[in-house]
């Protein structure tokens, strides 16, 4: 913070990877004007204090998928006989408590596979096998609004069913997630019988279209070296370019505002970020 490069903009033109909810925890209050690269926004206050993260300045990055890519050959040969699949820890905190409620509602239902499990020994194989056999993959909130499970579903060709009311998604200014995922509010998902009825109402044509879109979109979530066009590294800089005007605005304004000037709206007075479910397109 004593460097001229930081002080010329109070850190606004600096980029910090804060890719864990506890990263930089002891110094965040000094660095909150910088651009943060985040795995989750979580504006509920569970992990980030109000005013630390907001979409106007920060970027959401994809988690690295734990599973292998289901390529075109895999997609053409896969037999998806399970309607809905979930594997993971069922007891979570905060917004993730919905998992236990969903399990209670769905366990034992025809066409539904729910497994308690972790990413430990045998976990990858079990998750990969389950996702590749399933049409839809359940993605409820956990300790944070998102998880690697979402991107595991994408690389597996399994249509994500997202039940996470506070979720923010990577590169949403570029990508339309309604083409590859279905968004369900927590209140709807917990109504007896509602979720399965909803999934069974999705037509075969819609399913095939979304599966084809998953095959097209997967390139946007696969990290690589060297970076590939339209891969996640490329999309980070495309999203960053859209923030440059705003960065310059706040930097120049901070350099000319005189003592006693009225304060302008900052992230502290913004309402929490929220993602509303959208219609299938």
From TrEMBL:
<keyword id="KW-0812">Transmembrane</keyword>
<dbReference type="Pfam" id="PF03016">
    <property type="entry name" value="Exostosin_GT47"/>
</dbReference>
<dbReference type="InterPro" id="IPR040911">
    <property type="entry name" value="Exostosin_GT47"/>
</dbReference>
<comment type="similarity">
    <text>Belongs to the glycosyltransferase 47 family.</text>
</comment>
<protein>
    <recommendedName>
        <fullName>Exostosin GT47 domain-containing protein</fullName>
    </recommendedName>
</protein>
<keyword id="KW-0328">Glycosyltransferase</keyword>
<dbReference type="InterPro" id="IPR004263">
    <property type="entry name" value="Exostosin"/>
</dbReference>
<dbReference type="GO" id="GO:0000139">
    <property type="term" value="C:Golgi membrane"/>
</dbReference>
<dbReference type="GO" id="GO:0016757">
    <property type="term" value="F:glycosyltransferase activity"/>
</dbReference>
<keyword id="KW-0735">Signal-anchor</keyword>
<feature type="domain" description="Exostosin GT47">
    <location>
        <begin position="3"/>
        <end position="197"/>
    </location>
</feature>
<keyword id="KW-0808">Transferase</keyword>
<keyword id="KW-0333">Golgi apparatus</keyword>
